[in-house]
Fold this protein.
Amino acid sequence: MGGFYGLAILLGVALLLRTGRCDVNCGGGRPGQPGIPGRNGWPGPKGEKGEPAQLPSGPVDPNILLRLKGEMGNRGEQGVMGPKGFRGDLGPAGGAGRSGRPGSDGRNIGHGDSSPQQARSAFSVMRTDSSYPSLEQVVTYQHTVVNTPQDFNAATGVFTCRIAGVYYFTFHSMAKVSVCLRLASDPPFTKLGFCDYNRNFDQVLSGGAVLELTAGQRVWLESFRDQQRPEETRDTNQKQIIFSGFLLFPNPA
C-alpha cells in the first residue's frame, strides 16, 4: 500500500515537469499593462560649498564676466549742471511761525516828561475871513481843527515849540486874487515865501517845509507884498487859508 502512494507521487511530479516544458512551437501569453508611475523621491541633502572660481589664462567669454560681481569703483566727478527746470505750482500756505522774543525796552523820547505819549504835537487851523490878510503881518485864524496839546495860539497865529525835534509845516490858500504867503520863524530859520499870479482862475497857493526846532522857538505864517495890484489887497471876496504842522520825531533829550 505504501508502494502505491509513492508511485502516484512520482507520476504527479512527472506530469508537472512535462507541463512546464515548452518547445519552440509553444505559444506565450499577452504582455502585461504598464504600471502606475511612482511618486517623486525625497529631496537630496545640500551639497558641499564649491571651490572659488579661477579664471583661465586664455580668453574669457564676456557674458561670464558680466555675471561676475566686481569691487565698487571710486566716485566719479560731478557732471555739468543741467538747465533749470520749469517753475512748479505754488504750494499751500504754511502755518504761522512761532512768536519772536520780546524786544528791548524803549527809551523816553519826551521833553522833560516821563511818558512817551507826551511826545506829540500837531495843529491845523483855518482862516475864513474874506478880508485880505494884512501885509507883513502874522495871519490869524477863525477856526481850529486840531491843536494837540495846545502848542498853537489861534488868537496870535503863532506856534511855539514845546518839544525839541523835527517838524513839518504846510499851508494852502484859495482866493479870487493873488495872495503871497511865507513861512517864518525865529532864527536860525527866517522866512520862506510863496506867490501865485495866475489871474484867469481862482488862485490856489500851497507851500511847506521841514524845520528842526528847539524848545521855545516860534513859527508862523504871514502875508507879504510882492507884485499884487493895489485893488487886490482890498478884495473882499471869499478867501480861505489853512495852516498845519506836526512833530515828525523829537530830538534825543
The chain has a mean pLDDT of 80.
